Amino acid sequence: MSQNAIPAGPPSNATAKDVATRIAEHSLAKRGEEYASEVRRLLDAALEVIRECGTDSRPRVADIVAAAGLSNEAFYRHFPSKDALVAALLQDGTDRLASYLRHQMGKDARPEAQVRRWVEGVLSQTRKEIAATTLAVLWNGGSVGAGGRHNASEPLGGLLHKPFAALGSAHPEMDASLVAHAALGKVSDYLWAGRTPTRAEIDEIVDFCLAVATRRTGGSPGR
């Protein structure tokens, strides 16, 4: 018998299971990559179709599927409804914006500067080249039921916890949440008005955020 030959005989259960598990995991990983690609195609297609529809009409699942080059089966494999897709699109947009804000805030260690960068980054959603798409997505998001509603103020406001604490906020989480709601509300106002904020308006919003962070109070947020 060759030194490299494997002795004949039935494989142990442990060895058979290990091989089976590895093959199954490989298959699942490959399928996971394929599914992730499908979801990304659906999200990108939905964003494009929603942009084209604007605030005049809401796209159908058939429109999104056709733009993605996929089947209805692929759509419903990942999303139980169009509202679920829109909710995922809102989450995707929030994740991208949070990543951008985190990058911008990381350019300056001063808490005041970080707050300004946060405000400017949030208000960047009103820029002409992306405003129409942002508004259309938010408008479609208005059809998402309460059970699937996505609130962007929580993850975006969370980026202000540390700078607010550094500025002396007694309740940085509550104050950051209030500021995030106010800033996103102003974004909505600008989008519907079809304009971007002036430099003076940006400065005023920054001053408001800093005033909230530096206010002195002996109370508690739950009182």
Keywords:
223 residues, mainly alpha, Tetracycline Repressor, domain 2, 2 domains, flat, disordered C terminus
Structure description:
By secondary structure, the chain is an all-alpha fold. The protein has 2 domains: 13-79; 89-217, Tetracycline Repressor, domain 2 (Orthogonal Bundle). 70% of the residues lie in helices and 0% in strands. The protein contains 10 helices and no strands. Helix 1 (13-53) crosses helix 4 (82-105) and helix 4 (82-105) runs antiparallel to helix 5. The N and C termini lie far apart (83 Å).
In percent, how much strand structure appears in the residues? Answer: under 5%
Number of helices: 10
Spatial shape: flat
CATH uppermost class of the largest domain: Mainly Alpha
Largest sheet: none
Write the layout of secondary structure elements.
Elements: H1 13-53, H2 61-68, H3 72-78, H4 82-105, H5 111-123, H6 128-141, H7 153-157, H8 161-166, H9 172-193, H10 199-214
Q: Quick gist of this model?
A:
With 223 residues, this protein is mostly helical. It contains ten helices and no strands. Residues 145-150 and 218-223 have low confidence and may be disordered.
